[in-house]
Amino acid sequence: MKKRIIGIIGGGNMGEALIKGFMKNMFSKLISILVFEANPVRVNVLKKRYKISYEKHMRTLISKADIIILAVKPQDMPALLPWFKNDDVIEDKLVISIAAGLTTKFFEKHLGNKARVVRAMPNMPALEGESITAICKGLFATMADLKQAHLILCAIGEVIVVEEKQMDAITAVSGSGPAYVFLFVEQWIAAAISLGLSEKDAQDLVYKTLVGSAHLMAKSGLDVRGLRERVTSKGGTTEAAMKIFLKGNVFSKLIKTALTAAKKRAKEIAK
Question: Predicted confidence band at 1 (pLDDT cuts at 50, 70, 90)?
């Protein structure tokens, strides 16, 4: 079987996650990878780590690739799209975008020629093959294209298929989600240090508690509320902390407000 060529435009965190995933995944035996990255320092890093095939000219990558993954930030997309202008062969290619906020209609408009577009929203754990990625197809993409995108993105974690109207919410929940976790952990560690623990002990205790709790959530079969109630003994230390977190619903309101702001921003990016 002839290998399919996947062209990755952008070698940042998500571009690297895809390269790393393809290198580890059995799927890599069926594909060849071409990468275009504008930053020469980043190119050298990727070459050293993965021995990638680097394409110096984006137009050449576009011409050679069967599947093109746009792994650049939304704000960088206007500088990239003119390279596709008047490309008569784009109709024969599958284009996968992981740019937050940008719709399939946006790409269909700028790429033209009935571009077959699949929109994807992975997240940062993709760097460790632990992403949860949501995908949806554009007007001209086929179900076969959607299945192909699903297979490709399984290289960086789990994949779910959704309707595009859900994508802004998904961007706010899981796309931006790792930053929420990191912020909470950052403050958790800082509070632990303020109680007299060393920085190393605070980090070890918080990291292991976080990872262990995540595994428990995944494997216990209980919902998170049930788990919280099991660890919260009446009159105990956990209950004392929970009363602060839950007082006046401030914590839940803050999270809802933050996610709403992220969803709103995703919509603004698309305009």
Answer: very low
Which candidate, 62, 46, 52, places its Cα nearest to that of 31? 52
| Residues 190 and 144 both lie in one domain | no
Q: Collapsing DSSP states into helix, strand and coil, what is residue 54?
A: strand
Beta bridge partners of 5: 32
* DSSP strands (E only) in the chain: 4-9, 31-36, 53-54, 67-70, 94-97, 116-121, 131-137, 157-161
Contacts of 74 (CB under 8 A, 6+ apart): 99, 100, 101, 102, 269
Query: Among 80, 65, 90, which Cα is nearest to 7's?
Result: 65
- Taking the C-alpha atoms of residue 33 and residue 110, their distance in angstroms, rounded to an integer, is 25
- Local structure of 68: helix, strand or coil: strand
Q: Residue 74: give the domain boundaries.
A: 4-164
| Whether residues 54 and 143 fall in one domain | yes
Q: What is the pLDDT of residues 21-62, one digit of tens each?
A: 988 865 666 778 899 998 999 988 998 888 778 888 888 888
Measured distance CA(60)–CA(35) in Å, rounded: 11
From 134, 164, 194, the end of a domain falls on 164
Q: Greater confidence, 269 or 29?
A: 269
Q: Are 69 and 5 in contact (CB under 8 A)?
A: no
The whole-chain average pLDDT of the chain stands at: 91
Strand (E) or helix (H) holding 21: helix 13-24
Domain count for the chain: 2
Q: Give the C-alpha separation, 121 to 76, whole Å.
A: 17
Taking the C-alpha atoms of residue 48 and residue 33, their distance in angstroms, rounded to an integer, is 15
pLDDT digits (tens, 9 = 90+) for 51-84: 778 888 888 888 889 999 999 999 888 888 888 8
Is the whole-model pTM more than 0.85? Answer: yes
